[in-house]
Amino acid sequence: MTTFTTEDRMKAYDIEDREDRERMLRDQNRILAEEIQTLKTRLAQANKRADSWEEAYHNAMDTMSKMSRARQ
After folding, report:
1. Nearest CA to 4 among 33, 70, 12?
2. pLDDT tens digits, residue range 6-33?
């Protein structure tokens, strides 16, 4: 029959605590990775919208310039 000393029990608790901390950190890393990917996607979409607005602005300015020249 094996008897466990207080020291043995403390080592077992330390191992469990470490495993719990590691599991928690892995979960946090996974969540952060997902959030980073979401932010990257949102940033790419925002950049596309900004490019679209910039292109629309330049097209409008070109059109106004052409109309202004046509009046003269």
Report:
1. 12
2. 777 777 777 788 888 899 999 999 999 9
Cα separation, 72 vs 68, whole angstroms: 7
Helices (H), the chain: 6-71
C-alpha pair distances (Å), 24 with each of 7, 15, 28, 36, 65: 25, 14, 6, 18, 61
Q: Output phi, psi for 3, to 5 deg.
A: -110, 140
Please state, in angstroms and rounded to a whole number, the distance separating the CA atoms of residues 65 and 58.
Answer: 10
Phi, psi of 39 (to 5 degrees): -65, -40
